[in-house]
Write a structure and sequence with these properties.
Order of helices and strands: HHHEHEHEHEHEHEEEHHHEEHEEEH
Helix content: 25-40%
Number of strands: 13
Strand content: 15-25%
Bound molecules: pyridoxal-5'-phosphate
Distance between the termini: 53 Å
Amino acid sequence: MSIEELARKNVRELTPYQSARRLGGKGDVWLNANEFPTAVPFELTQQTLNRYPECQPKAVIENYAQYADVKPEQVLVSRGADEGIELLIRAFCEPGKDAVLFCPPTYGMYSVSAETLGVEYRTVPALADWQLDLQGIADKLDGVKIIYVCSPNNPTGQIINSQDFRVLLEMTRGKAIVVADEAYIEFCPQATLAGWLSEYPNLVILRTLSKAFALAGLRCGFTLANEDVIALLLKVIAPYPLSTPVADIAAQALSPQGIVAMRERVAQILVERRYLVTALQDIPCVEQVFDSETNYILVRLTASSAVFKSLWDQGIILRDQNKQPSLSGCLRITIGTRAESQRVIDALRAEPV
Ligand SMILES: *Cc1c(COP(=O)(O)O)cnc(C)c1O
């Protein structure tokens, strides 16, 4: 047997996540991964690298609990929110039997994690306004253990109606977990569902330090849930999911000064978003700029594939969303520095229509 044939069937058939890094490109303006545009400096304070780290570093958990206004027992820290997505499937879904459900257009890792673990995934396309098709979800719930709802949604940028979350949480009570992926919640903090944890035993919330905290390279994310959910996740997580330097920097980022600095970065991004949106609105090849509550915007363009390629060749790397359902002609643009936005604006202005 070839090595390929030795592999699990679902792994042979797997399409890996098309991360911004994997897609490559020789750019000097990187606006395809929703990263913060500049680096925040840190110094390591822990030098005990001869020792294994704590599984759930106390300072990180306590700081995050305080920041999110939940109890430390309601917080799990992992190698990015992406690991949280996968731990949930490992804890709740029987391969070949149970299913997960999500509503495209949305984040790509839900399907990749399900496929990797040999768990079926089901999709219920979002409505025309990109809100949840609650009836469609209700009709497809049989065997579903986890529903992933990204809010604000990547890549559309809008918040999912909280009333719809309530209906979904009631509909699935005692049957399935509802995961609110709040990777971008710092850009619209009023929309968090964290305050609902005491009401809904089946609510799980995902968070990350990769976006507003400007630490995508750190690989650190959080799962907020009630204690019994966290206890199950702790059973399936690796014994040392975070290295000592990661825990050290995460605790600093979540200190009171770290939170203040994060909020200043968010305010700066919101100013830059306004600038970019306003400028894009009078560029000929731009058909529509969608409202965003995040650090990226979704834009519909005339001849979007040609525009994407043209900007790519000029070193401006955006994210092509054209293949996602209901997103034909759409590109996603991360809010970067003013200079980066200006490069995008100038390049788009030069595009023929
Ligand atoms: C970026 C992102 C994540 C992943 O966050 P990491 O902590 O970097 O793994 C999860 N969900 C959504 C919607 C994201 O955009």
